[in-house]
Amino acid sequence: MSILIKNGRIITDEKDFQSDIYIEDEKISDIGVGLSLGAEHIIDAKGLYIIPGGVDVHTHMEAPVGGTISSDDFETGTRAAAFGGTTSIIDFATQSHGQKIRETLDIWWKKAEKAVVDYGFHMIVTDMPEADLKDMDEIVREGVTSFKLFMAYPGVLMTDDATIFRVMQQAGKNGSFVCMHAENGGAIDVLVKQAVAGGKKDPVYHALTRPDTAEAEAVYRSIALARMADAPLYIVHVSTYDALEHIAEARDRGLPVYGETCPHYLLLSIDDLKRPDFEGAKYVLTPPLREKRHQEKLWQGLQRNNLQLVSTDHCPFCFQEQKTIGREDFTKIPNGGPGVEDRLHLTYHHGVNEGRISLHRWVELVSTAPAKMFGLYPRKGAIAVGSDADIVLWDPSKEHTISAQSHHMNVDYSMYEGFSVRGGAETVISRGEVIVDKGKWLGEKGRGKYLKRDQYTGRV
């Protein structure tokens, strides 16, 4: 289908201008004022912003966690993403111990066949002996150009420093890079066992046993390992000012170190874990929510580009059926929370509307920088001739209240229940197809395509 978008105000990470857009064969084929090309569908975008579709590089659809599986699969999760203005995701394929990473990738490709927006993968590595390092090169050629490692969750996901260093060295050679979950898992494990032995089992102890310094120490150590390996490093879900300082220092020294944060660290706090009647379990995720003093520091990290983008770490578990598994013991609460639908709304309202970031910086954080960082630009994250026609018509005056009663994620609560926001996605176009229009779903199951990503080139 060909589409002509008329009378719109195009907002990119650098530009703000009035123009029309002509879309044909899934691509943007022309941009100009007063376009009169024949089109099968004409959209009047008067009063709306035209922005590139959001790119969320940190999601966990249908993910095995703590003996259960996250409640959004690739169909429900990507549909919810689209309602929120996100048109591409990068999810995490999780290697089982003893499994070849190519086998893992095949499993996740099968899971993702239901996706309704485009998707790529990172590979979570839990087991990487020296003899298997060549397998990393194979999946880099398949377009999986980032590998996630954990310094936390001993006995489950955690890898030792030797494994981390080997993977970093190989990534430096094959044009990929490491995404690091940075927390000192050994020390945390001691604190958790001490808390449980002392009868401290409420949800808030999830945060109290994972202190700020456990994250900061691991960030510092991972930067040191990456420097020795001569490899780029990306720190996922930064939650503390202490960790941010280490990233900023590394960047000041010219090291290729990058970081993301998430809306929940910008807007929620440890106080939410203290909610009565086990309600705090809704906010058990890792790293944990911190004291409010960290929030403005993280916003400053985004303003100064010491943090390059905002993702969601979307990993939902239903409260009634899944979170309550840990009612008597916080260590049994599945770690994770929903958010893939809310990212653009929350960052626009609390960022742009409240004067923390500009319109350009907002587009950069939620779309352009993620696409550049993870080898998708300019296919994604751009409004340019030749780019995929992933476009959101954003209504800056649209007001709504976030609620589990109206969201599209397959989960029975919202971490942002009752948050009022101004600004929202009016029309969402994915590869030249209108999939959301004025709150109505028009897309089809399985229409999403796999994104073979480029190798790392020092993009952000």
Quick recap:
It contains 13 helices and 19 strands. By secondary structure, the protein is an alpha/beta fold.
Describe this structure as you would to a colleague:
By secondary structure, this protein is an alpha/beta fold. It has a domain at 53-373: TIM Barrel. It is 30% helix and 23% strand. Strands 1, 2, 3, 4, 5, 16, 17, 18 and 19 form a 9-stranded mixed beta sheet that branches.
Output the keywords.
13 helices, 19 strands, 9-stranded mixed β-sheet, 460 residues, globular, 23% strand, TIM Barrel, alpha/beta, 8-stranded parallel β-sheet
Shape: globular
Low-pLDDT regions = none
Name given to the CATH homologous superfamily of the domain at 53-373: Metal-dependent hydrolases
Please tell me the CATH architecture of the domain at 53-373 by its name. Alpha-Beta Barrel
Would you count the extended β strands for me?
A: 19
If you consult CATH, what is the topology of the domain at 53-373? TIM Barrel
Distance between the termini: 34 Å
Summarize the topology.
Elements: E1 3-11, E2 16-24, E3 27-32, E4 41-44, E5 49-52, E6 54-59, E7 64-65, E8 68-69, H1 74-83, E9 86-94, H2 101-111, E10 118-124, H3 133-141, E11 146-150, H4 161-174, E12 177-181, H5 185-197, H6 204-208, H7 212-229, E13 233-235, H8 241-252, E14 257-261, H9 263-267, H10 270-273, H11 293-303, E15 309-310, H12 343-353, H13 359-373, E16 391-401, E17 420-430, E18 433-437, E19 440-441
Parallel strand pairs: 1-4, 1-5, 6-9, 9-10, 10-11, 11-12, 12-13, 13-14, 14-15
Antiparallel strand pairs: 1-2, 2-3, 5-16, 7-8, 16-17, 17-18, 18-19
Helix pairs in contact: 3-4, 4-7, 7-8
